[in-house]
Amino acid sequence: MISISQPEMKTQKYPTIRDVARRAGVSVATISRFLNASAPISPETAMRVKQAMEELKFTPHPIARNLATRRTNTIGLLMPDIGRSFYTPMLREIEAMASTAGYDLLIHSTSPMNSPQSRRRALTEHNTDGLLVFIDALDSDELRHLRAIGFPVVLMNKTPPDGLDFPMVTIENQTGTSRMIEHLITVHNRKRIIFLQGPVGNEDSREREQGYRLALSNHHIPFDPNLVARGCFDTQRAFDATRQLLEKNMSFDAIFTGDDDSAVGVMDALKSAGLDVPRDVSVVGFDDSVFARLITPSLTTVQSPIEQVGREAVTQLLHLIRGEASQARTALPVKLVIRESCGCR
Amino acid sequence: MISISQPEMKTQKYPTIRDVARRAGVSVATISRFLNASAPISPETAMRVKQAMEELKFTPHPIARNLATRRTNTIGLLMPDIGRSFYTPMLREIEAMASTAGYDLLIHSTSPMNSPQSRRRALTEHNTDGLLVFIDALDSDELRHLRAIGFPVVLMNKTPPDGLDFPMVTIENQTGTSRMIEHLITVHNRKRIIFLQGPVGNEDSREREQGYRLALSNHHIPFDPNLVARGCFDTQRAFDATRQLLEKNMSFDAIFTGDDDSAVGVMDALKSAGLDVPRDVSVVGFDDSVFARLITPSLTTVQSPIEQVGREAVTQLLHLIRGEASQARTALPVKLVIRESCGCR
DNA sequence: CTGAAAGCGCTTACAG
DNA sequence: CTGAAAGCGCTTACAG
Question: What is the CATH number of the domain that holds B233?
Answer without folding.
Answer: 3.40.50.2300
